[in-house]
Amino acid sequence: MKTAQIVIGLGFGDEGKGITTDFLARQNPGAVVIRFSGGQQAAHTVMIDDKKHIHSSFASGALRGLPSYFTEHCTIYPIFLLNEREELKTKSGNIELHIHPLAKVTTPFDIWQNRTNAKNLEHGTCGKGIGATMKRHESPYKLFAIDLIAPRTMLVEKLKGIAYYYGFMDDHQIEEELRTFLQAIDLIDWKIDDYTYLKSFDHLIFEGSQGILLDMDHGIFPNVTYAHTTSKNAYKICRQLNIEAIEMFYITRSYATRHGNGWMSNENAMVLKNNEEETCTFNEYQKELRVGELDYKLLNYALKLDAAYSCPTKKNLVVTCLDQIDDEFKMDKLEVKFDNIYGSYSPYSKDFKKLF
């Protein structure tokens, strides 16, 4: 029987989806890890002994040796992908990456738009072109993964159209912007595969992006992401693959975080400890990582919201960074029942313990 595990963040991101995915990859060495939302903006950090890797263009099983798959709900940026592939090679990670033909491709012009548009900067951006790519795909100027293996003349014409869409009119400037981009495309052995590829695996691990509170349908507009960060997309894929044995892993830190603009409850100036390996501390576009006490009402809201999309055979909760709070995690405030509750005392360590 084919089985699946789905990893979902319950907050505004940075909950510990990377280490949870690595935890599941360690238990299932023959699995494939599937990204079903987001893209190159991810910063999912995994540490194995003395090796550390921040997964963005590869799923968080890569350092553990598992292959990655990006669905049509994801974005990819060839330059970032190439750079991460080379870094993974030095760490003996798995650089096998399969991409759905309809995954959306970010271009240098999308990144320029994200980093210079006043409205994007006001609403919040990671500066990696995600929002601009998704917004552009609402227009006729689309670019998919399958286009990366199309005849070069056709690909270049599509890229020129995207440049014109953003107001680039100088052909020489366009060529300069595309030079490194096209070189990266040439250096990657593209594996463009539909879901038939996934049928060869008995176990699938679905790695979410960001958190439920940033979902494009359920977050507080305009400070949301252009993605469904609930289990909606993962369940849709499981149905297509006829997978019925589905286990959920919901992730939260022991305190609240938000990286970027927008509303956040219980925000305060709590001082973090033992966080020398923290990845998302500062980004020139998102600015500082904001923190505060965990809002249990908001946690219960996110859990009940995702239940509208999911019907798992098993439901688990993972609480990371337990070393940051003096009191115990308040299990009695949870209004949702779990089969298991796991805890970790760091955002990047392997010290998962079954609490209940």
Automatic annotation (TrEMBL):
Active-site feature positions: D14, H44
Q: How is the cofactor bound?
A: Binds 1 Mg(2+) ion per subunit.
Do the record's keywords include Magnesium?
yes
Q: So what EC number does this one have?
A: 6.3.4.4
Pathway in which the depicted protein is active: Purine metabolism; AMP biosynthesis via de novo pathway; AMP from IMP: step 1/2
Tell me the residue numbers annotated for binding GTP: G13, D14, E15, G16, K17, G18, I19, C321, L322, D323
Which cofactor does the UniProt annotation name?
Answer: Mg(2+)
Its subunit composition reads: Homodimer.
Name of the protein this chain belongs to: Adenylosuccinate synthetase
Species this chain originates from = Chryseobacterium gallinarum
Q: Which gene encodes it?
A: purA
